[in-house]
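ok posting inputs for the nicotinamide-adenine-dinucleotide job
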Amino acid sequence: MKIQQIKFSGSRNSYSILIGRNILSILPKKIKVICPKVQKIALIIDKNVPNKLKKLIRNKLKRYKLVFLNFNANEKSKSIKTVNEIVEKLLLLNFNRSDLIIGVGGGITGDVTGFIASIFKRGINYINIPTTLLAQVDASIGGKTGVNSRLGKNLIGSFYQPKLVISDTSILNSLPKKEFICGYAEILKHSIIKDKKFFNWLKKNTKNIFSKRLKYLNYAIKKSCLIKMFFVNQDVNERNKRMVLNFGHTFAHAIEKKNNFSKNISHGEAVLSGMILESRLSLLKGLCSVKTYKQIIDVYEENNLSYTYKKFSNSKAIRDLIPFLKNDKKNEDKKINFLLLKAIGRTAEPNKNKIDITTLKKVSKLLVNRNF
Ligand SMILES: NC(=O)c1ccc[n+]([C@@H]2O[C@H](COP(=O)([O-])OP(=O)(O)OC[C@H]3O[C@@H](n4cnc5c(N)ncnc54)[C@H](O)[C@@H]3O)[C@@H](O)[C@H]2O)c1
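and the output
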């Protein structure tokens, strides 16, 4: 059993991320060390996680008093109502701060579980077992937790770090392709914003990642975690540097909102489209070269991902996104605050590319593929 370990050291606490295949058997040993006073454990488990995983966890943790809470993870159930229901269950079961909550699921489960852990008696031990590629390479790192409000996504939340993250890649076997692409989009984004060498490696090995070849998947997850951590460490409360992680996401959020968060376009597909549109914008603004842009396009074409941006090959499709771009959380005035690219591995400074609507309407014609 080969386990890769990444240590996160924050100003107030530190924890490890363990990555490997079939590594969940390490859980009891780790719990003993990091939260030795635990008696009760509540497991909040995504209902789509295979049963054999639940059985394995039950078996490994049988010496504790276990409570299994099956969670139907979707953006609607990522709510304060769910949080309240679970918190009340734990209160009735007399959980206290030395006990433990474990989240087993994708980013939704992790965000909800982390938020519950942060507010339950002002903070209870928390372990995250991410079960989607997106959660393993992105959502489980950085300590952002939270739920949606009817007024918008992720509007209620906290910053709270887990005691441990275990990313077992064997759990990804049951993950549908569309969900896998969501994680891949963030891996590709991490390489584009920070690491040219990793980008070149991805160019060669994306097919190995999609075929879930262990060595390649482990490496991509580890590199991706390290890049996200690099930005998070510099800016734990998300004031400036961390905004680099938003590359591709300004357009992506507008695409998702325009489509009413329909399952037809997943978050990952929207990010893949957004990265192309924002690369084109970088090119038009003279920030990056045609060569940089073409290198990114090549990765899409070689891996059948170009369908994601081909939807935006007419200027009307782009103009239709403008009303949704106006509501982006990063905007501080009437301009749209883009995070643009200078080269593979290097972005422009955050808050330096605010574009007004009139200009954006003009460039929407030029954003169309045929001009490059
Ligand atoms: N906290 C952060 O920093 C951060 C970062 C990025 C995204 N997020 C949040 O993460 C959420 C998206 O995360 P996600 O893409 O993991 O979505 P998700 O949690 O909805 O999981 C995606 C789907 O996969 C299913 N699933 C999970 N594990 C599975 C498995 N092993 N096998 C089969 N099916 C499985 C889920 O039931 C769900 O239907 C969003 O709510 C987003 O806001 C948070």
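notes: The two ends are 48 Å apart (CA to CA). The mean pLDDT is 93.
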